[in-house]
Amino acid sequence: MSFLIPAAHAQEAAAGPAGSGFEWLFLVGFLVIFYLMIWRPQAKRAKEHKNLIGGLQKGDEVVTSGGIAGKVTKVTDDFVVIEVSDSVELKFQKVAIAATLPKGTLKAI
């Protein structure tokens, strides 16, 4: 019966393709693009926001991340109190402040 099934003979293992360094170049290029387009701008925005939060003072005109504009009346460690209208004050976490406005902007709105 062995004439119907040919005998399998072991062959030497084929050598893999020689590494040309192209794979490493591609990986390094990907990491550089990732750093320049994602990591660096995000770190810059985080640093600017941290400086914004650290520099809040009473009397600053701010906008929250929810779009509420008002004047800071009290600043504590984690919270700020914002006057949004006459005798209407709201308490926000500092991290909710998105931007400061130039002085007099609220009167112009």
UniProtKB/TrEMBL annotation:
The membrane topology of this protein is: Single-pass membrane protein
Superkingdom of the organism of origin: Bacteria
According to its UniProt entry, the protein's GO biological process terms are: protein transport
Keywords assigned: Cell membrane, Membrane, Protein transport, Translocation, Transmembrane, Transmembrane helix, Transport
How is this protein annotated for GO cellular component?
plasma membrane
Q: Does the keyword Membrane apply?
A: yes
Q: Where in the cell is it found?
A: Cell membrane
Task: Supply the InterPro entries for this chain.
Answer: Preprotein_translocase_YajC
Membrane spanning residue stretches: 21-39
Q: Which PANTHER family is this protein grouped with? A: SEC TRANSLOCON ACCESSORY COMPLEX SUBUNIT YAJC (PTHR33909)
Similarity comment: Belongs to the YajC family.
- Protein name stated in the entry: Sec translocon accessory complex subunit YajC
Traced from the root, the source organism's taxonomic lineage reads: Bacteria, Pseudomonadati, Pseudomonadota, Gammaproteobacteria, Pseudomonadales
